């Protein structure tokens, strides 16, 4: 619902399966299971930060190949009448489960998605949505802030985690595809993951 409102006419250029996935009727969850062919985190020097982030269901220190994961999205209406989408991702490293949560709302005046990352939120990022000529969904991050309860502080550009997400659909394999890259100008890769998933009831 909120993504169709954000993309406008461009929404119709998404692959039909992506239109189906991002329609997200109110209170009707989209749930999926899949496999991340690769998950790569950054330098060992970042592990203290990753360990802190895991407490907020955000980033995590593990890397791996062929990592099972689950995804759940649901659109809800808030008390002020606006809509928000809950994102819940769980990655299964053996008997260890890592989560990556977010809450998204649309800012219609600025034409961006407002993304609060973590539970409770640890970071905020503007997200810019567009559709590629192949019908894939492309998401890029913009302005970012550190969040501590009701306090928010802008993150200097040199400390940002610059995000690029590309989601598509493979007609031959009949699976959704996802590729996420989070990079920092100073230390390089913060996280990269790429994989496939299919919906479940």
UniProtKB/TrEMBL annotation:
InterPro entries for the chain: DUF4166
Domain of life: Bacteria
Annotated ranges, domain DUF4166: 14-197
A Pfam family this chain is assigned to: DUF4166
Protein name listed in UniProt: DUF4166 domain-containing protein
Organism: Lysinibacillus louembei
């Amino acid at each position: 619902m909120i993504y169709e409102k954000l993309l406008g006419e461009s929404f119709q250029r998404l692959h039909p399966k992506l239109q189906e996935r991002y329609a997200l009727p109110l209170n009707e969850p989209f749930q999926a299971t899949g496999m991340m062919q690769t998950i790569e985190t950054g330098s060992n020097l970042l592990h203290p930060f990753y360990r802190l982030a895991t407490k907020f269901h955000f980033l995590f220190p593990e890397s791996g190949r062929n990592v099972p994961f689950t995804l759940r999205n649901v659109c809800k209406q808030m008390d002020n009448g606006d809509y928000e989408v809950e994102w819940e991702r769980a990655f299964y490293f053996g008997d260890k489960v890592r989560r990556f949560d977010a809450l998204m709302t649309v800012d219609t005046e600025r034409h961006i998605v407002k993304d609060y990352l973590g539970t409770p939120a640890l970071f905020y990022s503007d997200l810019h949505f567009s559709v590629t000529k192949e019908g894939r969904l492309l998401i890029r991050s913009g302005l970012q802030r550190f969040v501590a309860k009701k306090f928010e502080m802008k993150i200097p550009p040199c400390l940002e985690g610059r995000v690029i997400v590309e989601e598509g659909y493979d007609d031959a394999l009949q699976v959704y595809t996802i590729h996420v890259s989070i990079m920092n100008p100073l230390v390089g890769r913060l996280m990269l993951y790429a994989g496939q998933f299919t919906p479940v009831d």
